[in-house]
Amino acid sequence: QVVVSKTPIGNLGVTVCYDLRFPELYGVLRRMGAELLLIPAAFTLYTGMAHWEVLLRARAIETQCFVLAAAQAGKHNVSRYQAETNQAPRESFGDACI
Question: Helix H segments across 3-98?
Fold first, then answer.
């Protein structure tokens, strides 16, 4: 279901992590009146580094909407991180792109 919610700060287009890969969805949200896109995500280390920020920027440019995107923070998926990097677990503190 494609959702646009009216809020006091504007019309909010609601999506989740994997949706970010499909620009057509964000075009639909914009045509439905979205002004702000909400995109929480849980990308893995490598796909996050390669895709997350560039796709967020692309969705903002394509739709001319503001984008609010939260990534994971804190300790998470420790065994997968160790398998991918051969390093000790880490903590992430988030990042801002304005």
Answer: 23-31, 45-47, 53-63, 78-85
pTM above 0.85, yes or no: no
DSSP state of 65: -
Dist CA 14 CA 29 (whole Å): 8
What tens digit of pLDDT does each residue of 33-47 get? 999 999 988 777 777
Using only the alpha carbons of the chain, give its radius of gyration.
15
The continuous run of DSSP H or E covering 11 comes out as: strand 10-14
Residues β-bridged to residue 37: 13, 67
